[in-house]
Specification:
D-isomer_DH_NAD-bd; 10 helices; Rossmann fold; about 325 residues
Length: about 325
């Protein structure tokens, strides 16, 4: 690896991490730093060029790219998920890959509850209705267009009870909800928040189901035409974990039939969302553009960890390595 002053560092897609409200100075202090807002296709290899260290969020780093960039020794993924990197090829070529394992726990848990509260109160809709003059011209002192739902006394079932699931459960409990959870690896810290139960019990007893599990072969398509009938009529489903946890056509059908009262999703199976995604036309479905992680505080934490990852690597003591 080059001397610090000569170290060439390239960030391939920095805009979503830092659209201008954070500082890249931590990386600039480690070497010759070049940043691109976005990189795709044929630009990937030439932009990496002779760089020894790169940062990527969603720009894919394939075996072909690794073979074309022999100077590369370090890939810092600016996210928790690192499937954009061919880690097998990186390992074969002696390239260290790191990720950011925990940075948005509080933000993502808070956002799950925000989706739920929007479903329960439709605050945005009613605020806009007031601005359009509907309250001014109302015969009564109030009006509402959706059922207003009180959460106290209802049951939240959380699938995936790690850090984020437990933050979500803690907030739900503070709202007066009963919390039950399913996780293959039962964490003792979760027992103070909710009761561990079977997956079928989650489906049968939950008024709200919130997904916080990783995307694995065992969880892909977990919400589908076979599991939805096991749920209560009028259940609410939340997903700000991974889009492919849900079979979207099956959820859309259940929303349109009324079996599922509402859904709030911050992730979909293919992102950015495609125009033919069935959830776009489904009843009572709130969709946000994968922003649970994106509070300024969360992104600042991500930036600090990313700088620390590269710094540790340069000192010969890599941390948060993957692959």
């Amino acid at each position: 690896m080059s001397h610090k002053a000569d170290l060439k560092i390239v960030c391939l897609d920095g805009y979503t991490e830092n659209p201008g409200d954070l500082s890249w100075d931590g990386f600039k202090a480690l070497g010759d730093f070049t940043i691109y807002d976005r990189t795709s296709g044929s630009d990937i290899i030439p932009r990496i060029g002779s760089a020894e260290a790169i940062l990527t969020n969603k720009t894919p780093i394939s075996r072909t790219t690794l073979e074309a960039c022999p100077n590369l020794r370090y890939i810092g993924v600016l996210a928790t998920g690192y499937n954009v990197v061919d880690t097998d090829a990186a390992k074969e070529q002696g390239v260290t890959v790191t990720n950011i394992p925990t940075y948005g726990t509080s933000a993502v848990g808070q956002f799950a509850i925000a989706l739920l509260l929007e479903i329960c109160h439709r605050i945005g809709h009613h605020s806009e209705a007031v601005r359009k003059g509907r309250w001014e011209n109302c015969d009564d002192f109030c009006f509402w267009d959706y059922p207003l739902i009180e959460l106290a006394g209802k049951t939240m079932g959380i699938i995936g009870f790690g850090r984020i699931g437990q933050v979500t459960g803690t907030i739900a409990k503070a709202l007066g909800m009963k919390v039950i959870a399913y996780d293959e690896a039962k964490n003792t810290s979760g027992q103070a928040i909710g009761d561990y139960v079977s997956l079928d019990t989650i489906f049968a007893q939950s008024d709200v189901i919130s997904l916080h599990c990783p995307l694995l072969p065992s969880t892909q398509g977990l919400i589908n035409k076979n599991t939805i009938p096991k749920m209560k009529d009028g259940v609410i489903i939340l997903n700000n974990s991974r889009g492919p946890l849900i079979v979207e056509q099956d959820l859309a059908d259940a929303l349109n039939s009324g079996k599922v009262y509402a859904a709030g999703v911050d992730v979909v199976s293919s992102e950015p969302i495609k125009a033919d995604n069935p959830l776009l036309k489904a009843k009572n479905c709130i969709i946000t553009p994968h922003i649970s992680w994106a509070s300024k505080e969360s992104r600042k934490r991500l930036m600090d960890i990313a700088v620390g990852n590269l710094s540790a690597f340069l000192q010969g003591k890599p941390v948060n390595t993957v692959g």
